[in-house]
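Table 4 source record.
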Amino acid sequence: MDAQKIKERQREVWSGGDYSDISALLRPAAVVLAEACAVSAGQEVLDVAAGDGNFAIACAYEGASVVASDFSAVMVERGRARSEAEGYEIEWVEADAEDLPFQDGRFDCAGSAFGAMIAPRPRVVAEQLFRVVRPGGTVGLTAWVPGGFPSRLFEITRKYAPPAPDAPISDEWAVEENVRERLDGLAASIESTRRVLVWAGESPEALVERMAGDGPPTVAARKSLSPEQIDAMSAEMTEAVRSAAGDGPARLECEYLLTIARKRG
């Protein structure tokens, strides 16, 4: 596996388009993650693969001192602008989740809401998350459950824009056996629970527009796919929503795995 090539492609994808609608859809899960990690005032927290800062802002709201990192310089700028606009003092750093530029044991908590799950080398990113957390500290992760609606959407997009053949699939982070294997020797305890994130729209078409629209993956796909392929992909996504939620107002329950792990003391 050429991890660097995969990351370069991912960086290109997530540096384009409009991330705001996707961010809004994911935001409630980041709040749940901060609560599950018991983030509180006085703690130092790291948001890894932060996107535009959902988890970082949820932790800053609790009074924590927060550093947010992402491997996309564009996303870092988006996150910095967002956190400043919302009145939070968050330090933003361009950083690879597989090579975090922070000292050992600096943070009370390191978390990632649907971000670290796309890193090409799961064990490497797990080791980095635990390295930067103090003994007894917390690592928190979310990832989409296989077979859930988001995973079905990813299957459609992968059909039209196939990933590298040896790249891991992100929802493998939502299989408890995989989580325990990847965190083996790093965590003193691991608790994984299934949670639900609700996505809603006025119609299947409106929800697909919100989920995809001008989002980074769709904008990236337009560079390599024909207009006919883009239309076909959108039609498949719309039909997937319709089959799950029916016509008219669409409400989807999107299941994800919330994992909270404690570092060995």
